[in-house]
């Protein structure tokens, strides 16, 4: 009975399992919480802290808060897109097409002596957003590379060699 059920079942999709995994759920929850926390900080305490900074530090604050906001918007877009996959609202193939519209912020970093001028809480939010971006990029590469591999036809090395031999014999016959 067990063997029969194995014969008729479709292979398990690693990418679908990954999209529905607790790891994705945790990353989604943490990422969206970071977006909310950052928005609250920048609209409240961060605004007050920025007014106390000297000109150089205030410019660094403005630059980094814009970068942080942009990075988090991109990460939130990616997370929401892949939540739609998890909830069956779109396929992974559709998400793969759509995800190219989400451009992750580059690796621009503020010089360390300027970063030190920023309020500690902003520095912490920046570090956490960078960590989240690293996790999302890794997850994205794993998820979409697995999906491409799952949908690519597997060519047997023996079949490939037989094809080469067949082609060689057909060529010599002419």
Oligomer: single chain
Average pLDDT, to the nearest integer? 81
What proportion strand?
under 5%
Instruction: Give the overall shape, derived from the CA principal axes.
Output: elongated
The N- to C-terminal Cα distance equals: 53 Å
Low-confidence stretches: none
Structural class: mainly alpha
| DSSP E strands, number | 0
Secondary-structure element order, N to C: HHHHHHHHH
Q: How large, in whole angstroms, is the Cα Rg?
A: 24 Å
Residue share in helices? Answer: over 70%
Give the helix tally: 9
Biggest sheet record? none
Structure overview:
The chain has 174 residues and is mostly helical. The chain contains nine helices and no strands. Helix 3 packs antiparallel against helix 5. The longest helix is centred in the middle third of the chain and has 32 residues. The mean pLDDT is 81.
Comma- or semicolon-separated keywords:
174 residues; 0% strand; mainly alpha
């Amino acid at each position: 009975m067990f063997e029969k059920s194995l014969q008729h079942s479709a292979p398990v999709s690693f990418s679908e399992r990954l999209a529905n995994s607790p790891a994705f759920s945790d990353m989604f929850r943490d990422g969206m919480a970071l977006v909310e926390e950052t928005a609250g900080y920048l609209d409240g305490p961060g605004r007050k802290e920025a007014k106390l900074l000297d000109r150089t530090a205030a410019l660094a604050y403005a630059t980094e808060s814009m970068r942080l906001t942009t990075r988090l918007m991109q990460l939130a877009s990616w997370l929401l897109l892949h939540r739609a996959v998890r909830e069956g609202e779109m396929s992974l193939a559709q998400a793969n097409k759509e995800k190219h519209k989400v451009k992750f912020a580059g690796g621009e970093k503020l010089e360390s002596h300027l970063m030190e001028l920023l309020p500690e809480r902003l520095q912490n939010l920046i570090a956490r957003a960078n960590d989240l971006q690293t996790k999302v990029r890794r997850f994205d590469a794993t998820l979409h590379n697995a999906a491409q591999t799952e949908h690519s036809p597997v060519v047997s090395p023996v079949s490939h060699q037989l094809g080469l031999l067949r082609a060689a014999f057909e060529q010599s016959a002419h």
